[in-house]
Amino acid sequence: MKKFQLIIIMTAIILQGFGQESSVENGAGKKQEVAVNENGNTRIAVGRNLLSVEEGDSSVNIRVGNRGLKILESMEGNKVNFEKYSENEVSDPEDLEDNDDQNKSKKNKFKGHWSAAEFGFNNYLTSDKSLVLPADIEYMNLRSSKSVNFNINFAQLCLGITNHIGLVTGLGLNWNNYKFEGNNNIQAGTNGIIEILDPEAVLEKSKLATLYLNLPLLLEFQLPVNNSHINIAGGPIGAIKIGSHTKMKFQDGQKVKENGDFSLNMLRYGATARVGYENFQLYGTYYVTPLFLTGKGPAGNNLYPFEIGISFTFND
Predict the structure, then answer these.
(1) Which residues lie across from 224 on neighbouring strands?
(2) pTM for this predicted structure
(3) Per-block average pLDDT, block size 10, for the chain (316 residues)?
(4) What residues have CB less than 8 Å from 4, skipping those under 6 apart?
(5) Distance from C-alpha of 51 to C-alpha of 116, rounded to nearest angstrom
(6) Is 138 helix (H, G, I), strand (E, B) or coil?
(7) Where are the domains of the chain?
(8) Among the four 12, 29, 286, 307, which has the fewest Cβ within 10 Å?
(9) 114 Cβ contact list (under 8 Å, min separation 6)
């Protein structure tokens, strides 16, 4: 359950970041943060179901607004389920009297541009910010046009400062595919240090794949243009690894997949920025945390992942 505890810690850090704005929008007299521990279960919540994390013996439920994610842990690995809640659902009877006013004010709320489906390309840089890798780790070279990432940002919470400026946070799933250029894959060798895996046969393709849960905190500006908006946003982003595997496909059609940690950093953080017009965005993300644990990268090298791509947001 260590992974689930890390999710709760990440959520608590984000809560500290926007706790004051939340109290302004929801009223100073309302209880905004709750943390309880009963029979080994932990729950963290903010406001009227704005954001909550509940940890059980074998699952974690994460909710932002009326969207949620359930992560189930079993011997076979982690299973991720999406959840959707009623917008009128409230957990505190005292909130019922305010529900009508809350629904009326929704139309006038600042709406950010985090919730989206995103597609892009990923790669990594060396410590000196170069795409050219040292000669002794050329097996880490990627097929740039085939190394893609796909994101589903399924939950969003907006805290308006003005009608056109606000803070945006939420949750998203981030899939990265690092497809190797050479006829090789990678493995964690002695002391977990990443090294080349020679399949001793001709490969059609080979890759390292990762799945992370993202949690951003963005400051967004919306510039009115002819009854529309140009959107500019940026800020820190944190992530926790949910799963990772390598996969090889041979020319004869045989496939070999191996699940493992591969000395990848479980927690990573960086910065993300996006700019767009209405529901179409361009985004870029750079992580200052190395892809692999320090000292465990290929030949001891640190590689820093980044992504660039396009985004189609879900908001009106």
Answers:
(1) 229
(2) 0.73
(3) 55 46 41 50 58 69 70 66 62 50 56 95 97 96 97 94 95 97 96 95 97 98 91 98 97 94 97 96 98 96 98 82
(4) 55, 60, 71, 73
(5) 19
(6) helix
(7) 2-106, 116-313
(8) 29
(9) 153, 156, 168, 169, 170, 172, 216, 218, 233, 313
